[in-house]
Fold these 2 entries.
Entry 1:
Amino acid sequence: KAGVTQTPRYLIKTRGQQVTLSCSPISGHRSVSWYQQTPGQGLQFLFEYFSETQRNKGNFPGRFSGRQFSNSRSEMNVSTLELGDSALYLCASSLAGGGAKTQYFGPGTRLLVL
Amino acid sequence: DQQVKQNSPSLSVQEGRISILNCDYTNSMFDYFLWYKKYPAEGPTFLISISSIKDKNEDGRFTVFLNKSAKHLSLHIVPSQPGDSAVYFCAATGTDSNYQLIWGAGTKLIIKP
C-alpha cells in the first residue's frame, strides 16, 4: 500500500504571497491532519479533516486554512505569508477516529519564506 | 497548558546500552499513547503504542511502559544502535481530545559509538 504523499517537497516563496500544499492519504484512510514543525519545536497541530469536514483545529491564525475532497485528499493554504511561516509542514492520515488512532505521516513539505 | 511533556530535550547513550525516554501527561482521560521517531527533514514514523488497559507493550528492541497512577510512560530501547539516533515524540489521545493526538516536544536521542 502506498504511503502518505505530499507535494511539493520543497517550496520557496516571498512574504505576502500565498501557498497551497497537497496531501494524499493512504488508501482507505479518511482522516487527514496537518502539522507545522519549526526548528527546535515539536509538532504544532494545525487542523484535522474527516469526511470533508474540519473536525479539530489548532491555535493558528485564519491565514492557515484547509480543505478535504471526497477522495480524502487534502490541501492546506497559507495566505499572506510571513517569515515565521518557514517550516516543515507535515500531513498525517489515519483510518478514522474512534478505534484507529495511529497516524501515518508523509515526508513533509519544506517551505521557505524569504 | 502542556498536556504531554517530555522534559529531556536530549539524551546521549552508549551504543549497546539501554535508552530510556520519558513522557509525562496531565490529562487522566487519555487512553492511548504512541511513540514516534523522526529523522531530520522527514515525517515522523510510528514506533509503538499502548492502550491504557495495559502497562507494557513490547515490539522487538522497543518496549513501552505505562504507569497510569503516575501519569507517566517510558520507551526503552535495548540494545541501542546508531540508527536509533533521532528525535522521539510521545503522543496521547482519548475521547476527551476527540481523538486528536496531543504531542510532546520531543527528545533528541544520540547514540554514541
Entry 2:
Amino acid sequence: DTGVSQNPRHKITKRGQNVTFRCDPISEHNRLYWYRQTLGQGPEFLTYFQNEAQLEKSRLLSDRFSAERPKGSFSTLEIQRTEQGDSAMYLCASSSQSNYGYTFGSGTRLTVV
Amino acid sequence: RKEVEQDPGPFNVPEGATVAFNCTYSNSASQSFFWYRQDCRKEPKLLMSVYSSGNEDGRFTAQLNRASQYISLLIRDSKLSDSATYLCVANTGGFKTIFGAGTRLFVKA
C-alpha cells in the first residue's frame, strides 16, 4: 500500500495521559500536514513540515502539542496531559507540491475519558 | 467569519437528479482550490481541483469565480454512491489550506 498510513487507528486514553500518533506519508512526498477534525466540521490545520523542517504551527495549538519529523520521512504527533476537548480525529496528509491536493491517511480517532 | 463557507445542507435528492453546491472564500490571495469528498467516519479524498476556466470530470463539474470569490460543484445524474460530505478547499500557497465545514448530500432511490 503506497498511501498515507496512520497508527493507531483508535486511541482511548484517560484525561491527563500523554499520547503519541504516527504518520507515514507517501514516500515521494516531501510535505506533511497534521489536521484535526471534529464532528460536523472540516479538517482544521495543526502543523506543516517540509522535509524535516516544521515550517508552521497553528496558533490554535497549545504547548501540550508537539510534532516531529526527524528524518523527513515519518512524523509523530504527541499530546501531553490530554483533555476531553482533545477528543477528535487526527488526520495526517502529504503532498508533493503546495498547489496539489493532499492525500490523507485514515486518521487516528482519539477519545479522552 | 469563516475563511471558507459552505451551506451545510443536507441536500436530499433522488437518483438521477442534478445537484449544485456553492462555496465562498474570504481570502482574495487564495491561489488554488479543490473539492474533497468525505464518507462517514472516513478520511477526505480529493475529488477534483478547480480551475478558473472551469473543469469537468465525468458527471462532476467545478467552477471558480475569482471576482466573486465563489466556487461551485455540479453533480449530474446523481448516484446512490454519491452520498457523502463534500468539502470545499482554498489554498493561499504553501501550507495554508483551509477546509470548509462541508455540505452533506443524500441521494435516495
